[in-house]
Design brief:
The protein has about 110 residues and is α+β, with helices and mostly antiparallel strands. The protein has one domain: Alpha-Beta Plaits. It is about 30% helix and about 40% strand. The protein has a 4-stranded antiparallel β-sheet. The protein is globular.
Length: about 110
């Protein structure tokens, strides 16, 4: 059945924009924690051709109930036309950590 929590993966340009997105998600209580992996290489199809770009990856811990708000917020502040925002359910985890996610995010 899983938990009411998830990890959201977001790619963004390297640098200040990624840090700004991470900080705003936490300060608005849409996320309890955001880990930033500063350098990943992404290969993807865009406008009919294969592209490769250096990006950063944000790993966001939040509640499933906040996903709609989180996605809408990311769409407003993200520089990409089609930002990657993918949620993966947390099946199980360390109970004190999951309780911490519950306490540190919005109630709805």
């Amino acid at each position: 059945m899983g938990t009411p929590y998830c990890v959201v993966l977001i790619t963004a340009p390297k640098g200040a924009q990624t840090k700004r997105i991470a900080h705003q998600l936490v300060s608005k209580r849409l996320a309890a924690c955001v880990n930033v992996m500063p350098s990943v290489q992404s290969t993807y199809w865009w406008k009919g051709k294969s592209e490769t770009a250096g990006e950063s990856l944000l790993m966001v811990k939040t509640k499933k109930a906040l996903l709609k708000k989180l996605i809408a917020f990311v769409q407003k502040i993200h520089p990409y036309t089609v930002p990657e925002v993918i949620a993966v359910p947390i099946i199980n985890g360390h109970k004190p950590y999951l309780s911490w996610i519950q306490r540190e995010t919005l109630t709805r």
